[in-house]
Amino acid sequence: MLEMRRISKTFAGTKALHGVDLAIYPGEVHALMGENGAGKSTLMKILAGACSADPGGEIWMDGQRIEISSPLAARRHGIAIIYQELSLAPNLSVAENIHLGQEIGRAGILDRATMDRAAEAALRRLGANFGPRTSLAALSVAERQLVEIARAVHARSRILVMDEPTTALSSRETDYLFALIRELRAGGLAIIYISHRMAEVYELADRVSVLRDGTYVGSIQRGQIDPDTIVRMMVGRELSSFYKHEHRARLADTPTLEVRALGDGRRVHDCSFAIRAGEVLGLAGMVGAGRTELARLLFGAAGDKSGDIILEGITRYFHQPREAIAAGVAYLTEDRKIDGLFLDMAVADNIILCTIENDARFGGILDRARGRQRAVAAIRALGIRVASPTVGVGLLSGGNQQKVLLSRLLEAHPKVLILDEPTRGIDIGAKFEIYRIIDQLAGTGVAILLISSELAEIIGISDRVLVMREGRIAGELTGSEMNQENIVALATGSQASPARRAIQ
Amino acid sequence: MSKLNETVPHRSFEALRRVDFRAGFRTMGMLPVLVILCGLIQAATIYVDGEGRFITAQNISIVAQQAAINTVLGAGMTLVILTGGIDLSVGSVLAASAVSAVLVSQVYGALGVVAALVIGLGLGLLNGALISSMRLPSFIVTLGSMTAIRGIARLLGSDTTVSNPELPFAFLGNGSVTVVPGLLSVPWLALIAGSVILACWFVLRRTIFGVRIYAVGGNAEAARLAGINVGAILLLVYGISGLLAGLGGVMSAAQLYSANGLQLGQSYELDAIAAVILGGTSFVGGIGTIWGTLIGALIIAVLSNGLILLGVSDIWQLIVKGLVIIGAVALDRYRLRGNPRT
After folding, report:
1. Does residue B9 register a pLDDT over 60?
2. What ipTM does the predicted assembly reach?
3. In chain A, what residues touch B222 (CB-CB under 8 Å)?
4. Which of B3, B218, B227 lies at the smallest CB-CB distance from A325?
5. Confidence class of residue A76 from pLDDT cuts 50, 70 and 90?
6. Which fold has domain B54-336?
7. Cα angle at A51 between A45 and A56, to 5 degrees?
8. Does A322 touch chain B if contact means CB atoms closer than 8 Å?
């Protein structure tokens, strides 16, 4: 029914997709799998008309070549997408949401009665227990999802894309959703289902296609779906000498940092682990497994918590990040633009900001020259490419921005360094340099907690790897157990893998 | 590890140049507007009266006095807006502290100045405490306190005009300091305003506190994660805004020998905000300079003074002033285009 041929996509010089082919048949649930960043979302955005593919790619529907130049065009071809973050207006009613952008009316005056009737018909077909006049704000996440599906049904969509639809659902709601998906499939709808959860794919999918690093790896039919095969397809085989690992963890009696039963009662539960000086501890897991939440909890950035944090033998309780920083814990935030850098400020100010007291004389008066010296030294130490320390940090490339942020943390001479996705969105050369910096820091005795969604990276530079799933530490891998299959198996909770043995 | 690269790619050089231009525009931004405005008004007075009545020593001294109070309020407002907030209560705080200054001076003389400053600081800290500890939006908190403090100002003076013909610090409002005898003397009011601007410049540029104000306004969450006590910064910033409003109250009382809780300082907050925005400080926070605010306050004063000199009715004065402010905001938008944060 639908065929995507040789689809490529280049973002600012990096290729996100390399000539991907994908065929969809009517009445099938087609699961799309791959690691974070493998290109699933980009491919679906192209299908939805949210971004355009590079020239050369083709999309065919019912034997005819079509152009999807805008979200409206996608809708006209019967393609509907339900994003992870639902795209509904919470201030409007259910009926208004179902008709959003295609309101029924005469001369600009809404025909609410017709709209309500049409919405009601779609809702009834889906077995919803709320009416078209209900305000969306009154509905739960699962019910809102139902509204999205109703919108697709109402628009007579033929292909429905669902991006991780069960992330926010309880198990009962998930069962209901699956029943609905099967019903829609029986009605001839094609459903593209993106998920990280092996169990769901196993239960639901007629076919599975796997992407890796922006390339299409292959598809398997229902009969041949087994977790090991999928995991192998997802992670691939080649491991390069790209990663640097020369430091050696020190065998001190007490670990630099010990965490006992840390939790917040919501997204993080009962996490215990220890990091020694000079050790790189990897923290793997799928997006939403609670890794960032754990890091922020540890850093005192996330409010109430239970459990103990023991730093160099002393139990600490950090209420605020500044207390953690003062104690020698530094945190590189996941998104440097949103909660890391001050984009309007100069490179130098960004570097010295955390430790600016060092440049001040009596009464908080700054010695600008000293601050600049410190900034210049830091710029040189990490090889940040910038014409002058007074340049605004917003103008730098991603890799250089990341190094600016990293050098701010290093100015505080931390004992424990938490790095949350340190190489996200930076080019390959900068990644290489960041790996070397991490290795050198570990060599000087810093205890490093490395959060990363790139499995090859986490395996390449960590001494041990913890894997989180649904807010808990699902297992620890050391030595030869540290391979991609075992990490994915722990992260997705797939049953059939030998890595189960690694779980205590 | 690679060494510091001396060369940067061609494209980023271009970007740097463009940004330097923008940064120059950002700080210099309104100065040409001020100069052109002065020239236009001078030309218009020559056209109307046959002689230039705008640029004379006497009139410039008047403009400086007219701009002084708004400059002081605008300086406090600049700090607040740099953190991404707003302080609507400065006009009411000014009234309350002016009334207190006059009342206290009736008994304790010059201590009236201290009383006004303490009251201003206290009210400002109260705003700051509500905003930082209860995490309420500054607009709503200061909208409320604007109304409540207006009530307090009237209460203090029993809803009458309080006055003191023997006001010991009246020289601040009407006197001048002779710099060169017979040639140049500077009004005290202008001197105070100039000192406040210099002090704010020093705080913003040369102190830890100043860097942190920009950091909080630029990205509050990043500031918190960088270990900055965001609440304390906000508390201090609103405290300073209140203190400067108190100083404005002293200046106003000194000028008039009296204070009226009902009328004094009405809509001064709007003039102060207009001065800050005219000066190129971004409402989003994190971008702006104190010099811009000085220029903004001067533009407003020059505009009022010039329109009066030309005999324009006060109704038309309002309309022109309003349009100038909107034009300035349009400029603000242009400036922010291509900003990395957007």
Report:
1. no
2. 0.71
3. 333, 338-342
4. B227
5. confident
6. ABC transporter involved in vitamin B12 uptake, BtuC (1.10.3470)
7. 100
8. yes
- Distance CA(A217)–CA(A161), nearest Å, equals 20
Contact B19 A392 (CB under 8 A): yes
Q: What is the band of B6 on the pLDDT scale with cuts at 50, 70, 90?
A: very low
Distance from CA of B103 to the nearest CA of A (A): 35
Of A299, A343, A349, the CB nearest to B341: A343
Domains of chain A in start order, with CATH, are 2-235 (3.40.50.300), 257-502 (3.40.50.300)
User: Per-residue pLDDT for A471 more than 70?
Assistant: yes
pLDDT in tens, A203-256: 889 999 998 878 888 898 888 887 777 777 876 654 445 676 777 766 666 789
Report the pLDDT averaged over residues A383-394. Answer: 86
Cα gap B39→A115, rounded to integer Å: 62
Residues A88-99 pLDDT 10s: 777 788 888 888
Which one of A320, A323, A342 makes the best mutation probe of the B interface by having the most chain B beta carbons within 10 Å?
A: A342
Q: Which chain A residues contact residue B340 at CB under 8 A?
A: 343-344, 392, 394-395
Tell me the average pLDDT across B26-48: 82
CA dist., res. B298 & res. B197, Å (int) = 13
CB atoms within 10 A of CB B52: 15
Between CA B78 and CA B239 the distance in angstroms is 13
The residue of B3, B211, B230 whose CB has the most chain A CBs within 10 angstroms, and thus the best one to mutate to test that interface, is B211
Per-position b or e across B186-209, b if 16+ CB within 10 A of its CB: ebbbbbbbeebbeebbebbebbbb
Q: Please report which confidence band the pLDDT of residue A496 belongs to, taking 50, 70 and 90 as the band edges.
A: very low
Least CA distance to A326: which residue of chain B? B227
* All structural domains of chain B with their residue ranges: 54-336
What tokens appear for B253 in the block?
């009382």
